[in-house]
Amino acid sequence: MNANDQTNDIDVNTMYQAVRSKYIGIYPTPILKIAFDLGIKVNRSNIDGDDILGFIEKDNHGKFIIHVNKKNNESEETFTIAHEIGHFVLHQDVFNDDHNLIVDYKKTMNNQKNRDNYSEIEQNRERAADEFAVKLLLPDSNVFDKGICLS
Ligand SMILES: [Zn+2]
């Protein structure tokens, strides 16, 4: 995987299937267990500002932590965790000494229209994490393929 490449549908599908195949028939998607099984810690955190849904960081021990804003409602929390798991499985190359987190905002989460100020690479990255999250949470759905916006 190379995060500098445009993430394509094959990457998302392949990684989604690799993750979801361990939880076949389990609904709703056990999102916290999936994070735990991948070795990701999930924290409900006090995050300054209501506009941040959450972020994923790689700490200096190489451990990944998803922080979700305590103020999120349940569906925001679930989607944010699924989206951050998407960053974890698809975008590990992004994390290095200079750049150890990806932050997600309410107005841009699952909303490509509000990502005008993002670079093309960032837009592709966010779109891929959204697509991964939708597939993970709605495994029998093809709503994303039909281009229906969930936000
Ligand atoms: Zn994101």
Kindly describe this structure:
With 151 residues, this protein is an alpha+beta fold. The chain has a single domain, classed as Orthogonal Bundle (Arc Repressor Mutant, subunit A), CATH 1.10.10.2910. It has 4 helices and 4 strands; from the N terminus they run ααβββαβα. The chain has a 4-stranded mixed β-sheet with strand order 1-3-2-4, with helices on one face. The mean pLDDT is 87. The structure holds zinc ion (ZN). Zinc ion binds next to helix 3, strand 4 and helix 4.
Shape verdict: globular
The secondary structure category is: alpha+beta
Largest sheet: 4 strands, mixed
Cα distance spanning the termini: 28 Å
Mean pLDDT across every amino acid position: 87
Which strand-content bin applies to the residues?
A: 15-25%
Give me the CATH architecture, please: Orthogonal Bundle
